[in-house]
Amino acid sequence: MDIGDPIDFSGRAVIVTGGTKGIGAQIATAFLAAGAEVMVCGRGEPARPPSADGRHALFRAVDVRDPAAAASLVAAAADRFGRLDVLVNNAGGSPDADAATVSPRFVEKVVALNLLAPFYLSQAANLVMREQPEGGSVINIGSVSAHQPQPGTAAYTAAKAGLLALTRALALEWAPRVRVNHITVGPVRAPSAGSAEGGGSAREGVIPMRREAVPDDVARACLFLAGRLAPYVNGADLAVHGGGEVPARYLAGNPFSSS
């Protein structure tokens, strides 16, 4: 079996939404380091775009909640690079809000960013990818909230659960030319919280891997799903959450230690 270099993305083109900071910036950096051409988007241009080995991601200011703007992003990348191989729908998030009093406008914005925007972008990307002999890969960055809701996240949880279902639906419709997969991301430590070796958050005490994720953990998962090692992986939900959380009923009577 000859798989070549499984993380060589030379000659391939990638879009990472929300790719100017945090997880998105690390995903963009990883693809650049692997040889890809990368375009990132956000609401405002960053002081420093993601870069690796002297190469930089291109930036485009886009509100991905706007269907026309989403389509223009994909068109711009395809025009600039001559192709589109990978779309990472990373843009998302929401502040906590009380479901009893949250406004309709808030709910609409959260659903638009976390569910509708990935739908619009994926539609546009599919139009390009399905015409390429090699097809393409769509990766949706999801959340553990889709599986295990937390208080204050009702709208976000509903949107992320929808994103997981959307992933599976598109995977059915667009195979075999375009693969669509999902990453369930757990708590991710902010860059200012220290190293990945522990001590950054009380939440680490209930995560089997004894630490929160760092953006690089998610970036490596994206390289796998988009690369040569995963040509038959479609409609999958890849958990990048350190094993989830130890059940509260266990913690109540059995302190969970790292020993």
What's the quick description here?
The chain has helices at 22-33, 67-81, 104-129, 154-174, 215-226, 248-251, and strands at 13-17, 37-42, 51-52, 55-56, 58-61, 86-89, 136-143, 178-185, 237-240. The chain is α/β, with parallel strands linked by helices and 259 residues long.
Molecular structure report:
- The chain has six helices and nine strands.
- The protein has 259 residues and is α/β, with parallel strands linked by helices.
- A seven-stranded parallel sheet has the order 5-2-1-6-7-8-9, sandwiched between helices. Strands 3-4 form a two-stranded antiparallel sheet.
- Helix 1 crosses helix 5 (215-226), helix 2 runs parallel beside helix 3 and helix 3 (104-129) runs parallel beside helix 4.
Task: Summarize this structure as a short list of keywords or feature phrases.
259 residues; 6 helices; 7-stranded parallel β-sheet; alpha/beta; globular; two-stranded antiparallel sheet
Structural class: alpha/beta
Terminal CA distance: 41 Å
Tally the helices: 6
Strand content: 15-25%
Q: What is the rounded Rg? A: 18 Å
Specify the helix fraction band. 25-40%
- What string gives the helices and strands in order? EHEEEEHEHEHEHEH
Summarize model confidence as the mean pLDDT. 91
Oligomer: single chain
**Mind summarizing the main beta sheet?**
7 strands, parallel
Q: How are the strands of the biggest sheet laid out side by side?
A: 5-2-1-6-7-8-9
Estimate the global geometry from the Cα principal axes.
globular
Low-confidence stretches: 192-199
Please give the number of β-strands.
9
